[in-house]
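Aim 2, interim progress. The first record below pairs a target sequence with its structure tokens.
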Amino acid sequence: MGNSSSSSPAASKYAAGKQPPDRTQRPVQFGDENQRPGPTNEQIWDTARGPAQKEWDAMKSSYDASQKAFRSGDRSGAKALSVRGAAHKAQAEKLEMTASDEIFSKLNSHRPSTEIDLHGQRVDAALRLVEKHMGLWRRQGVWRAVIIVGRGNHSADGAKLKYEVKARLESQRGIRLLLEVPNAGCITVEFLSAPPPTTAAAAERQKEAPSGLFSKIGGLLRRIFGL
């Protein structure tokens, strides 16, 4: 009596021969936002930054201890702890760059060379990547490139990144910015010094046009004067 009253519809369903759903989870790849369940992209980014975060925490602990030692009169101990904090800071910055490169590589490995996705980047790392690729695109004579910054709706960092990237681009000369093009959260950069593909093709045709025209005129004159 007690058993029948405590059985749930789900338990009865499985007892009737149906198997419970597979709860096996597969890690989500970078940029693969349609795969669920599994860790979110934000969780994966946090994992990539884990080693750096440990160094930041160690830096803070060392500096806090240094101040405590200084207030207690232990000047030599305070100095040693401050030096230790500086070492943790340097290591954290190095690991942050490694994490940034790892996240960027996994998000952009499938993208064309004229498009970069800055999701998961901190502002300073994003600006470093923007400067790097802007220089590369200029040297390559690229006419148009796309920078994906995200809509900035999900976090204060995302909104700040979008603002800072836009501000950095606006400080550069010889470009035109198309905001929210081709999609929301994107900035399209057009390089004014590089002709678009259609203009380049037209320029080639113009180069060839004079020689062809002169050749036709010469043939016409030879026929008229018997040259």
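The second target in this work package is listed in the same format:
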Amino acid sequence: MHVLGLINVIPSHGQSDQNYLYASIHPKTNLPRILLPRNRDLTVQIIMFDKPDPSRMQYMSLTPISLALGSKIYGDDDAFPDLNLEGEVQKERARKARLVNKLGLHTVVRHPPTQKEMLLPTILNQMNCSSELGRLLSNNVHLLRPRQKRVLSVGERVVESATTLWDHALAILWHVVTVWLYPVATRAFVIGLLCHRIIAEVILRVLEWRIRPESLAFKDVSATAQQVDIRLQQFCYWPIQYLTLRKRKDEWESITDRHPEYIRFYNSLWLVANDVIIGIALGSYIIDNAEWVAFQINDVLSSWTIEGLRDMIVWLTDAPAGLKLNNELATFLGALFIWVIDHWKGIASSLQ
């Protein structure tokens, strides 16, 4: 990074640097005016853009953001398997990937990228870092020209002493929290997380256990077991995803490599929270209106599985829609099915 010139500074005669560009912006217009050095043959192209805000994950890119799951993101099939897809779907995706690779071998050879095209990613990266770089320069502008401190008055000294004492007390309190309380709480949380991870791994092994290699696992025959398997796998990978997101604070926020992980992490959290909220709301409604819900369920089951079937069978034993049937056979089958319905009615009455 180097200085190209000055903005809103009128160079005086004999003091202007022949290598600098001088730009001025008129209050009535947003278009800058560029003054070029006379002894240099330069072509200046001005690109005006709204700076992306990295705190809102705004950035410019040549390719759309990828939200693919599993090995396509992490590049390690064993460490990060696809959580939401079954084996057949994974095989189909692998087959399509092989077909795409074969198709790439038969395409027409493209022209080599020009120098301008090769510089596009670098230019976009600089544009994405412009907002964060501006804040960094603004926060460190005092290092360029340190100001001389003036002599403080008596009142200002008293205020500074009180402020210093309060800051000292806060520093002691912060030291106690960070040195004593935080490590103990962190260690207890990690131990609890490890115990929960061990229990989750044991349950996952039970759900994935097969009597024979060609037989189905318990999660393949039960929808509840499949949901438990998915939730436990999400819980096992949440700490890894969270540690990946924590690395964003150690680097530039304008780097967009971890935005898909951010979206997937909070999307999975929201899905789990949504299931819990809906389950609690539905359970509370059923508990508060248990008698009415039981009456409605009983009424619907009686209407559709008992009374409705009985009326239909009675209608079929006669001449339904004017059709002539075997009366003896229709009567026998109708009596048989009515007996079955009466038996089911007795079982439903006992369940009430």
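Residues 246 and 312 are 65 Å apart (CA to CA). This observation will shape the mutagenesis plan for the next reporting period.
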